[in-house]
Amino acid sequence: MSLTNASPEEAARAAKISSRRLATLPNAARNAALEAVHDALSEARETILAANAKDLELAKQSAANGDLSSSILKRLDLGRKGKYDDMLKGIRDVQGLEDPVGRVDLRTELDDGLVLQRQSCPIGVLLIIFEARPEVIVNIASLAIKSANAAILKGGKESIESFKAISTVISKALEKTDVPNASIQLVTTRDAVDPLLELSQYVDLVIPRGSNELVRYCQRKAHMPVMGHADGLCSIYIHSDADKSMTSNVIVDSKCDYPAACNSLETLLVHEDVLESILPEVASALIAQGVTLRCDNQSRSVLSKHLSQDQTSHIQDAADADYDTEFLDLTLAIRTINSTPQNKADAVDAAIDHINTHGSHHTDGILTSSQEVADRFYNAVDSACKFWNCSTRFCDGMRFGFGTEVGISTNKVHARGPVGLEGLMIHEYRLSGNGQGAAMYGSGGRQFKHKKLPL
Amino acid sequence: MSLTNASPEEAARAAKISSRRLATLPNAARNAALEAVHDALSEARETILAANAKDLELAKQSAANGDLSSSILKRLDLGRKGKYDDMLKGIRDVQGLEDPVGRVDLRTELDDGLVLQRQSCPIGVLLIIFEARPEVIVNIASLAIKSANAAILKGGKESIESFKAISTVISKALEKTDVPNASIQLVTTRDAVDPLLELSQYVDLVIPRGSNELVRYCQRKAHMPVMGHADGLCSIYIHSDADKSMTSNVIVDSKCDYPAACNSLETLLVHEDVLESILPEVASALIAQGVTLRCDNQSRSVLSKHLSQDQTSHIQDAADADYDTEFLDLTLAIRTINSTPQNKADAVDAAIDHINTHGSHHTDGILTSSQEVADRFYNAVDSACKFWNCSTRFCDGMRFGFGTEVGISTNKVHARGPVGLEGLMIHEYRLSGNGQGAAMYGSGGRQFKHKKLPL
């Protein structure tokens, strides 16, 4: 890794050239580089924590002046118990993953001696823009090396000293390995981002990890694909036949486990039939966790009857905009879903319509005892993740068992939902023959065999 | 299919809504719609050919005025022998493909009763912009219905009467099926394209099928992903150990089988050791097919010695720009690749560097007798398709055995190389539980099982 003072164009060009060398390295060489990085970071613990302390010092001043939130301050601290070791363990975890390069998923004999093969290969050059947490740079560098992608990293200014110290250590460690130094470059100036987002001849994919604003900015400005999600407006619909015994647990977990997360609950849809039987218990449990409820008239009037005065002080009237808002906080919008007199199942469609119209196509859930209703929901909701009878918080690469997570994507192409290492890969075709030309085939000529071969 | 007079926003919104309904239809319902379209087009042959004749009449006038090339004129004619039947057969072919929707490729038991499933689903709304060939509209409508994607189609103005007639027939046929009419909409005004390219809330993917200019325009303007390729600057490198007996055949086929195709050869790289032994025969064969050779000094001076005066009249000096040019015609750039004195294998790297720098990352080939050299080429060339000892013309969805072709992509994400029906699909995650929350897991709590289940 180099801490680059090069121009954005020079840095991107160097990354592209390195990416081709990196793509040819065997897994053993990439793992050896990860080993070297791990050991070097382990040895340099004191130096890096000293640099981190400088970032923290400045951040504390900013926090005292009210320019920085205490949650960001907390995330900056690499010296917190277990954090540095977790960072080191993360390198080992990535090292231990199966090699994602060169996985063959198609082999076809087009004709005698003409064999086609499709296999996974790295994308090329990634531009990864992230915010303050200093350990993310190590995580991303590890993922890039493992997946044989070059990466240009741009981190938030709050961690600048930590980033510089870490990148110096990684750079020195890589020098003794086969991974070219320019494969991982740290860019520290904010004004490098705009030019990099235009260099589509060198940068193949942008991965912004941070605020909605950051993601939207990249989506608007980038001349290459952007992977990620801007919003996480997740909803759960409680159907008329929901199992009351699980409802409060699922809703409270979805909302309160980590309210600032993209997979936390923002809108609760409740079938009219369970306003009386289920919603009061759910509302009590949420209010006990400090949640403010923004309710439509129907749900509010039911709750007013069932809850104490102290509890109802946590209930407000919902405005239309609340159903389009990702609160990222202890606020929840609640809306009643009515059946038509003719058909109770219409309510499922109304809930689906609400979610497809107001949601962000990230993660949405249903609580129902019916497989048929769940299938209707599964098939018609246009979201990356659709959950039945469980918390939206399970939408996560680690929880899904992917070993590591590049991010969560709401894109409709390439990778969608929690993205593991395979989201950093693409495929290539290799065809080997013994002199065949295409003109030999077709009417009157040879016919293709298209015989599937074992992988 | 409706021939839409709606505003671009209304059309796109209607497509989005239809796409959700379409996504829930079983394969049988989509196949029944294809059947209906097939039968209706079969019945309406005379009406459609009459409309096509009007397009042809106008086109002939344009061609006579020099405003339209004769090759476009030829492509417009739906009445040519076998063409209409081929178009109908294309619908049946697509109908017969395996259902691309709902293919499960991952099942994991996260914990007791908490089961994750990943499965294929349609992307949503496709915007497909294409040029004159009238049968393409039928091909694309078939692919969209089969893959359960809604599609907005914009065809070239030269085929406007044919498109209108075809879309009227398809629209009427779909009315009797479960496929919503707004699933397939034909837009006829050129000025609808720019607004559509901005409607990323409704349109999920743009597929331009046509000239480099059209593709570049879409890449520049679209607010959503664009799949395709602008350039097809394909190269072949003849290494020092190439098998002479196959060389002329492969090179002539690559260049001459269809010079206007994106997978035809544009640059020939020749190792210095075979300038005398192989190049003259290759050059003679190319010149016999009417190819003009743009040569560097080294190759030109060898050819001057070996070819007749008549032949050498087809040889010109190459300018630097020729190695960056997609001629799409009977012109070929030739460049000599030299070994360094120390290491003959360095020439392979020089050829690879040339291809990675000057090529378009579409399809590139090598002629060599060595598996080791071929592997070096395979691993280091940054192209969607890498071919060894065969013609670049094999880069094609039909030839690859994909049954149908959406196009050829040089993108580094989603789909790369010839794209079959699977390029119109993305995946979704479905998680079913019985009341689990995420807070139950982690240190001190339950541990995930992450048990792989059979598909």
Q: What descriptors fit this protein?
A:
alpha/beta; Aldehyde Dehydrogenase, Chain A, domain 1; 18 strands; glutamate-5-semialdehyde dehydrogenase activity (chains A, B); 2 domains; 455 residues; Aldehyde Dehydrogenase, Chain A, domain 2; 5-stranded parallel beta sheet; globular; proline biosynthesis (chains A, B); amino-acid biosynthesis (chains A, B); homodimer; 7-stranded parallel beta sheet; NADP (chains A, B); 15 helices
Describe what this molecule looks like in 3D.
Two copies of one chain form a homodimer. The first copy, chain A, is of the alpha/beta class. The first copy, chain A, has two domains: 234 residues, Aldehyde Dehydrogenase, Chain A, domain 1 (3-Layer(aba) Sandwich), CATH 3.40.605.10; 161 residues, Aldehyde Dehydrogenase, Chain A, domain 2 (3-Layer(aba) Sandwich). Chain A contains 15 helices and 18 strands. In chain A, a hairpin with a 7-residue loop joins strand 15 and strand 16. In chain A, helix 2 packs antiparallel against helix 5 and helix 10 runs parallel beside helix 11. Chain A is globular. The two termini of chain A are 36 Å apart. Chains A and B meet through helix 1, strand 3, helix 10, helix 15 and strand 14 of A and helix 1, strand 3, helix 10, helix 15 and strand 14 of B.
Which helices and strands appear, and what pairs or packs with what?
The structure is a homodimer of 455-residue chains.
Chain A: E1 2-3, H1 8-23, H2 27-43, H3 45-64, H4 70-76, H5 83-96, E2 104-111, E3 114-122, E4 125-130, H6 136-147, E5 150-154, H7 160-175, E6 184-187, H8 193-198, E7 205-209, H9 212-221, E8 234-238, H10 244-256, E9 265-271, H11 279-288, E10 292-295, H12 297-306, H13 309-312, E11 315-317, E12 331-337, H14 346-358, E13 363-367, H15 371-380, E14 385-390, E15 407-409, E16 417-419, E17 425-436, E18 451-452
Parallel strand pairs in A: 1-6, 4-5, 4-7, 5-6, 8-9, 8-13, 9-12, 10-11, 10-12, 13-14
Antiparallel strand pairs in A: 2-3, 2-18, 3-17, 15-16
Helix pairs in contact in A: 2-5, 2-7, 3-7, 5-6, 10-11
